[in-house]
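Hi everyone, sorry if this is the wrong subforum. Our group has a chain we'd like a structural model of before ordering constructs, and none of us has done structure prediction before. Sequence below.
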Amino acid sequence: MQKHGYPVPQGLYHPENEHEACGIGVIANIDGTKSHSIVENAITILCNLEHRGGQSADVSTGDGAGILTEATEKRLLK
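Answer:
Right subforum, don't worry. Here is the predicted structure as tokens:
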């Protein structure tokens, strides 16, 4: 028999904060180290969220999902 309901409060999680919404994925090096593997992992997360929004229902348009990265002026002017 499966249990239904929310997990018990722990750490930053509290069931009172639950609500209906799309999922998000966050990945970062907390020490600020830049790494291409962070971008690769972010793309993996994005691919795993394909089912969200209207994308699966309408192949002609996207749902606005993407990844956010730092883009320095030096890099943009290359």
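For your construct planning: DSSP finds two helices and no strands in the chain. Helices lie at 36-48, 73-76.
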